[in-house]
């Protein structure tokens, strides 16, 4: 985790420097001032890098050393449960279909967007409540 945190700190600083340079260059040479899409997007990318770096840094401080941080660690130390995933889940399909219909609806027609919202809500709710109801209920 420590190496990952360092990588994201470096990425956050890099994108902040790029955003400042991009804002300066577009503010100087564009007739309408600072470009209104790229500059905030690169700033948001920098903020995302800093948020991930902060989360990884806090997780590293809270938990013990990770096998990826130990140079002499064996591969088998990383073995074990990596997460809890439900088998045979249809929820990601419905959520992604809803997202695709929403994006299509913005371009083609708002009535398609409404169907996309319905599919997306069903998919996300069934994904979240997957372990509460049905075959894999706890």
From TrEMBL:
Family of the protein in this entry: Belongs to the cytochrome c oxidase bacterial subunit CtaF family.
Keywords linked to the UniProt accession: Cell membrane, Membrane, Translocase, Transmembrane, Transmembrane helix
Residues passing through the membrane, by range: 7-25, 37-60, 93-122
GO molecular-function term, one example from the UniProt record: cytochrome-c oxidase activity
Membrane topology term: Multi-pass membrane protein
UniProt entry tagged with the keyword Transmembrane helix: yes
Chief location category: membrane
Enzyme Commission code: 7.1.1.9
Catalytic activity annotation: 4 Fe(II)-[cytochrome c] + O2 + 8 H(+)(in) = 4 Fe(III)-[cytochrome c] + 2 H2O + 4 H(+)(out)
Assigned GO CC terms: plasma membrane
GO biological process assignments: electron transport chain
Protein name: Cytochrome c oxidase polypeptide 4
């Amino acid at each position: 985790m420590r190496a990952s945190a360092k990588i994201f700190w470096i990425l956050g600083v890099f994108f902040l420097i790029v955003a400042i340079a991009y804002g300066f260059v577009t503010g100087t040479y564009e007739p309408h001032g600072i470009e209104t899409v790229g500059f905030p997007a690169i700033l948001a990318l920098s903020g995302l890098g800093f948020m991930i770096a902060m989360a990884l840094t806090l997780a590293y401080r809270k938990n013990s050393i990770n096998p990826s941080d130990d140079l002499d660690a064996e591969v088998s130390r990383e073995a074990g449960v990596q997460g809890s995933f439900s088998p045979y889940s249809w929820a990601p399909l419905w959520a992604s279909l809803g997202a695709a219909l929403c994006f299509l609806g913005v371009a083609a027609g708002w009535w398609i967007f409404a169907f996309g919202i319905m599919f997306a809500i069903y998919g996300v709710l069934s994904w979240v409540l997957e372990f509460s109801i049905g075959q894999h209920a706890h």
